[in-house]
Every structure is written in structure tokens, then in C-alpha cells.
């Protein structure tokens, strides 16, 4: 069991984490026709928007209630109401996801009450648009908590309650925020190969996959439909990916009675085998031949790649579930987790990370702990530490803004794990340094003293 080392510094040095509101907005962006709305100042929204645009290289729909000094003192209910009506009239979204920031949370605004009053007074005007609130203060938690709270809020605010007739082939899937567009898309293909119908919430593979629409769309286009969220209770089974998705899975269970199975990771042979076995059990179908072939390819990749992983020291900085996903991947191939840094101590998964300790901290902590490591694994903000330490950097997580296509990087199930092995092994091979003759033979250039080498004098 890893020891959790709490943050002791009074300031962050090269911050690792992003805020809860950003995580909530990220989840809302996975719904079709959605508009995330930050309830706070313009600066909070601008910062999140910059990160989204730099990571996805796309136009991101994100709005703000634009609280000013007066609203901060006297209350911002009017700003919230005006923002909701402006969005409804101008962009006609199917979902407005309100994400609270530290400003309104610190002030103690009753945002839930304000939204309830707005809905009650303007039922007809808001017809066709769901308004969902996620309480996500910046000062608490990080992206994972914000994502989970937004998904929970959508389930509790939209999904029809009560036991419903179950569709025998329908599966509700709640992916964690550490899954990429490619991960979600590949997971859907896997589920459909068993003849099952997946409903994924949120589905960023349909809304943030980098397509070019034939016309300007002010909201998200693609992703989970509001109607699919409403009908989640008709699913036969719920599958949650990542420990932070336990909360929304429990919310769905309590609301509709749909049972859930939680996978803490889908990277690696053993976890993927469990996932495939579950799909086979639910569908009653045999594992397709192409899936079996992907498994055989992964086994071969593990045989080929483990020579490059054995004994390597890895330093990882990521959100808790992604830290667990990557640490177990590296440890399973014979590497040592020399440094593990994460954003928050709220997740129970941290105790299972295969490392001596997990530091709650920032990229400054990673840099100090990673001395002597063979590989750094974190997002793009770790590039300066990589340069200073002269250790190669594997970019993963959010944000990745100095490389193209990060959202299309696959890292789960048989094929994703295979590709991850090849990527890491190639990084190791590209950064190998051939030993010099001096390093192999430290006595090679030793100076031999004149006294020991001189021949004895005559008569001695």
C-alpha cells in the first residue's frame, strides 16, 4: 500500500492540476447540443477556454455569467438568469451545464435555489433546454472531481427515476476523464462487436473528435443526446471506468436500480480480459475472432517490449486514476515507479498505486523526485523539467498543447496497451546512450606511478 504524502508547500511551483469547473465543463462538452456556463468572473472562463483550445485545437463552446464587483457584493442571481436566457435565445442549446467557481462558492450563493426559481418562473421559455448545476469550487479537488460531479448532476437532473423495463442489449458506460477521444471510440467498437448497444455518458468521441461541420454550430455537435441520458434507466448494466466514476454509477443505481461494475483501469492484459469476459457474459456471445487476435498481438508486444522496460525508473505526475492506470502498466512490465505525484488526496485509488509513496503536489515536486529516472510521464507543462533533468518526456493527460493529435492517442484495451508498449519502448531506444570505453573500464587511463614501474637499481 502506497503512503500518501500531503502537500506541505504554501505555493504551487509549476502547477500540475487544473480546476474542478474545467473538469465539469469537459464532461458537459461530451453531450450533444450542450453549452457549459461558468458561474463566476470572466477570468475563470478565459483560463479554462485557453487550455481547451490549446489541447483540442478546436473552437470550444464555453460561456460565463461575467460577475463584476457589484454582483460579487450584492449577489449574482440576476447575472445567472440573464446568462441562461441569452444562451437559450441565441444558441438554443439542448443542455446548459452550470459550473460554479470559487467566487460564488466562497460567497455562499444558493445556486441550486436560483436555478430552481428560474425554471419555475420561465417554464415555457426554457422548454427544450435542460439546465443542470454542478457545484465545483476551484479551491477543492481537481479535474476528476469536476468531471464526476457534472456526470452525477446530469444523471440526477435528467434521468427518469424508478425501475424501468430493461433493454437486454443496452449498456450504460460512464468513462473517466482520463480516457481520450480514441479510447472512448475504441471502447464503443469493442462493445458493439458483441452485439450490444452502448450509451456512453459523456461521449467526447462524438463532440471533440476534430471533425469540421458543414455549418457553424454555436453549441457542441455530437456526443450523448439528452434523450439518451433521460433513458439511462432502461439499460441492463452500467460499466464505470475509473474510481472517480463510482459516485455517478451509485447515483444511477439509486435512481433507477441499474447495477454497475467498476473497472479501475482498462489498460493491461488482465483488466482487458475482465472487461471482455463481462461483455461476453452480458451478451451471451463468444469473443469475436478479431478481439482474440488483438489479444494475441498484445501478448507478443509484451514479450518484445519487456526487455526495454525491465529495471527502468519511471516518474509520473497525473490525476489519481490516470496515475494508477499508468503506474500499474509500467510496474506490470518490470519498471520501477521512482516518483508518483498527483493532484488531490481525495481518491481511494491512490493507496493501490504500485509505488512506495504518492506525493500530493505539483510539477516542482516531480522534478525534485525524478532525479535519476529514465522517463518522465505527465502533460505538456512537464517539458521544462524534462529539459533541465535531461530525461525524456512522454506526454499524456491534459493538457497536451505542444504536440498534435493527443486526443487520438489510444491507450486502453488490447490494441491501446499494445500501442502504449511500442511508444514507450521506442522512447527508451531513441534515448539510449552507448557506454564509452572509460565507463566500461575505469582503469583504462590510470596513470602508473614512476616509482612502481622503475626497474631496480644495480646492487639493490
User: How does the major sheet shape up?
Assistant: 6 strands, parallel
- Sheet-strand content, in percent, reads 5-15%
Number of helical segments with 4 or more residues: 18
- How many β-strand runs? 14
Content-based structural category? alpha/beta
Tell me which CATH architecture of the largest domain applies here.
3-Layer(aba) Sandwich
Shape: globular
Q: End-to-end span in angstroms?
A: 70 Å
Please identify the top-level CATH class of the largest domain. Answer: Alpha Beta
CATH superfamily of the largest domain: Nitrogenase molybdenum iron protein domain
CA gyration radius, whole angstroms = 26 Å
Helix proportion range: 40-55%
Mean of the pLDDT scores? 92
If you consult CATH, what is the topology of the largest domain? Rossmann fold
Spatial strand order of the main sheet:
1-12-11-10-13-14
Family: Belongs to the NifD/NifK/NifE/NifN family.
Function: This protein may play a role in the biosynthesis of the prosthetic group of nitrogenase (FeMo cofactor).
Keywords: Nitrogen fixation
Pathway: Cofactor biosynthesis; Fe-Mo cofactor biosynthesis
